[in-house]
Amino acid sequence: MSLRNPVLQPPGVKAYLSQGERFIRWDDETTIASPVILRVDPKGYYLYWTYQSKEMEFLDITSIRDTRFGKFAKMPKSQKLRDVFNMDFPDNNFLLKTLTVVSGPDMVDLTFHNFVSYKENVGKDWAEDVLALAKHPLTANASRSTFLDKSLVKLKMQLNPEGKIPVKNFFQMFPADRKRVEAALSACHLPKGKNDAINPEDFPESVYKSFLMNLCPRPEIDEIFTSYHAKAKPYMTKEHLAKFINQKQRDSRLNSLLFPPVRPDQVQGLIDKYEPRGVNVQRGQLSPEGMVWFLCGPENSVLAQDKLLLHHDMTQPLNHYFINSSHNTYLTAGQFSGLSSAEMYRQVLLAGCRCVELDCWKGKPPDEEPIITHGFTMTTDIYFKEAIEAIAESAFKTSPYPVILSFENHVDSPRQQAKMAEYCRTIFGDMLLTEPLEKFPLKPGIPLPSPEDLRGKILIKNKKKQFSGPAGPSQEPGGEAEGSGPPNVPVGEDTVWAGEEGAELEEEEVEEEEEESGSLDEEEMKKMQSDEGTAGLEVTAYKEMSSLVNYVQPTKFISFESSAQKNRSYVISSFTELKAYDLLSKSSVQFVDYNKRQMSRIYPKGTRMDSSNYMPQMFWNAGCQMVALNFQTMGCGPFLRDETLRNQAGT
Fold this sequence. Notes:
Residues 465-524 are annotated as: Disordered. The protein is α/β, with parallel strands linked by helices. The protein has 22 helices and 24 strands. A hairpin with a 7-residue loop joins strand 6 (98-103) and strand 7.
């Protein structure tokens, strides 16, 4: 518990959001377009809209996952709605009026609420400011008292035509035990009949708190209070409260000089804030009710509020940070069957993920558009271009720090790889980092740039191969022969990719790989592939894709000794959870040293077909930066998913 005033202030709601704006709400399924007034309550708890019939619909701000406007908003598909909005007229300005609010309990089960404003560019302002409310650190990390206050706000907004609070709304909001609700209302001298209504002036915050105390008594808190309060006195003094905080709430392992115990004179501010009786406040006394509200306050939140702000030094080399990473990002369900969706890229990036995975495969004629799918499974495909567009839209909406695209590239077509590279260049534009920074050349012994240096940049992690001359579109006379290599590479030559400035893997590394492959019998190879999935089956990196790779160059891991000798900070190796655990068991110190110098990526074993997650903590403990998790399922260990980049020195 912290006695300091909360560092974070609740999100401020701009006046125009509370005053409201006229929109048309439309639904493609029902083909209905209805005029509404869209508003946000003054405390920023709810986005709600009122129909002409005075009926209201509420959307909890905490459930909002994204807001979109312009070309990124949803477009009506039904001709009826398109006619309503005159969308097929050439001078139509529909895109300047759109607003889509995306909500849902998780990243897969999403609902799209679609609006069209009467004025141009109104949707843009609403999208930006509503998303700012939804992504405010206190929105998802509010104290218990805030959630109780939300209930009061909603009760006072849902009034009947006479401007009163229907008692039936109490039964709907607290449905567990109707008799207890009736008893609590009676204890506060309020009507309790189903058809009764309460004047809002008769239900201020003080009466609401009394209602809650009667509805949900807390005998366990009374027991704690009794063990610390003055004998035969119905209150705690400042000395008693200080003793409770120091003995029950303070971590005894803390350094007493850096984190000194609280003094009685310091707790008077808590009594001023939470004690409901003015007489007790003047005397420096805390009642049992005041104790309950103190425990519900932000001082007792699970997370210290000052830690919700950016408080780490973001100027250290990139490998000094834990990087929120996603595995097989495009999947919405299991690893073997189910839908793939470009929407998942938006959702994980909005949730703070900074490393997403793209499993790329060759597209089929006639379009030959590269696709993303989980190879050799029954999962559906999405176009590579759709994923890139989704990433470009959402990459820096909620965080300014670099995004890493981890390519698992199975596109064995120079022409289609060239198309992939062109999509990256044109769609990402200046966001794509195509050349190393001048201060951080790709040389042994030079550290990686920092998140601050790479602010707003997208980095490509893809196999890299040496080519002479500038990168450009592949030119192949007479078309492309499938399976053909890049220029000057014989057909059928084994794939070799770079670990340093586009240089080939050194001879001894290649030999060691070949020896390792030759020593495995067929059964061992099958087991390795089942653990690694399709990650070990990537193809040659052609010129255009190789030219996009700089600070995140993947290479096959040989040994910790070999990596230390080469001392290349920009080279990264990926390990299945099983391989990483084996290395941790046998060479934990060397693994930590490796992560001090360069980055590692851990990903789930291939047999986790249900998209379950492993416990990531052991790999974080070793300093592994990219511990990739399946975001579509909660599984084990996603409790730190909403962190973006966390400085290892600060954890």
